[in-house]
Amino acid sequence: MSRTLAIIKPDAVASGNAGKILAHLEDGGFAIRALRMTRLSAEQAGAFYAVHRERPFYGELVEFMTSGPVIPMVLEATDAVPSLRDAIGATDPAEAAEGTVRKLYAESKGRNAIHASDSDENAANEIAFFFSESDRITTR
Prior knowledge:
Layout: E1 2-8, H1 10-14, H2 18-27, E2 31-35, H3 42-48, H4 58-65, E3 71-77, H5 80-88, H6 101-105, E4 114-116, H7 120-130
Antiparallel strand pairs: 1-3, 1-4, 2-3
């Protein structure tokens, strides 16, 4: 078993799809090990997405991620990082496979409902960004 970070983004929270996304992930075999609702400041969103600082979409991404509440969570499953990325689908919902979170709940490539860590190393860093060790449940 391994862990990864997911964030239900402001578009999915605002549209009332957070519970559906959580149920979809649990039905897909993910165990929730930590979860909270928060609103990111521009500084927090900028720090979290610092890896994208030089990309043209960075400012838009920070603005979007601060536009409303988000729900970061720690998920546990076998091969959690690739399993979650498979479960959420392609960044662009038009290209996402049927039955994936983004195909079901994303509005567009920019408003794509959910973030997922892209590597085990980034998952560890992203989990630590949002949750202390004591925030994380360690048993099933």
